[in-house]
Q: What sequence folds into this?
């Protein structure tokens, strides 16, 4: 890094050398040195190419992760938020690379009590999956489960239950059934009722019925088991 600084200060090679050195410190667990070197790389990249250049993403990501490793969450949040914003601006709103930064950013927001910001990032991750796969693809199930569990952990059981029900409807579509996905969704629904039993109902949310598909489920039960009045749900 010192040799590159002397040979071509502020060049791509110089910034790359500093980034490599910072990454080495990070991998060795020397997070204090990693923070210093990544911060140096951020300044070099900003001076050379401007603050809005995509070349800032890598040093910002490294700096944010290094700060998180030191439990400096409040300092890490604006750094990672800037890296994510640059990634979306230059690499596409739902590019895959952003999620390695957005997931720890959402967790950091939650640790700081910034729940609205954390929810926004979690919803963004879900919308990314929806953009890639569509709304009726079984590959959407993990994203639904992740977002639902986030609402469970945020004391929002009614919202979580709605998402688990969506997952159940998708998993039981006759054209593309997923038994494991259906079971996971039903267990999730049950978990939300336990949360309400333990902590009380979610005050600001209204529980939603099964989305389209519940009538088919009730009809199947009526044909093969005890008669169930319409409007009764399997939960």
A:
């Amino acid at each position: 890094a010192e040799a590159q600084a002397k040979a071509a200060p502020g060049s791509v090679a110089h910034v790359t050398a500093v980034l490599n050195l910072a990454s080495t410190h990070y991998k060795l667990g020397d997070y204090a040195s990693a923070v210093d070197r990544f911060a140096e790389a951020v300044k070099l990249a900003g001076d050379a190419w401007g603050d809005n250049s995509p070349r800032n993403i890598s040093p910002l990501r490294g700096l944010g992760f290094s700060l998180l490793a030191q439990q400096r969450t409040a300092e890490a949040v604006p750094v990672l938020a800037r890296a994510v914003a640059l990634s979306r601006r230059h690499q596409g709103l739902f590019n895959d690379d952003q999620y390695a930064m957005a997931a720890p950013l959402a967790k950091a927001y939650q640790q700081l009590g910034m729940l609205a910001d954390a929810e926004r990032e979690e919803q963004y991750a879900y919308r990314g999956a929806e953009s890639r796969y569509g709304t009726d693809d079984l590959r959407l199930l993990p994203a639904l489960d992740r977002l639902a569990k986030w609402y469970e952990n945020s004391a929002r059981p009614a919202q979580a239950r709605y998402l688990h029900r969506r997952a159940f409807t998708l998993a039981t579509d006759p054209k593309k059934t997923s038994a494991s996905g259906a079971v996971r969704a039903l267990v999730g629904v049950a978990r939300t009722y336990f949360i309400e039993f333990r902590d009380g109902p979610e005050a600001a949310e209204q529980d939603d019925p099964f989305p389209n598909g519940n009538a088919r489920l009730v009809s199947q039960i009526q044909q093969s088991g005890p008669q169930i009045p319409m409007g009764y749900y399997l939960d």
The longest helix spans residues 179-199. The radius of gyration is 23 Å. Residues 205-235 have pLDDT under 50 and may be disordered. DSSP finds eleven helices and no strands in the chain.
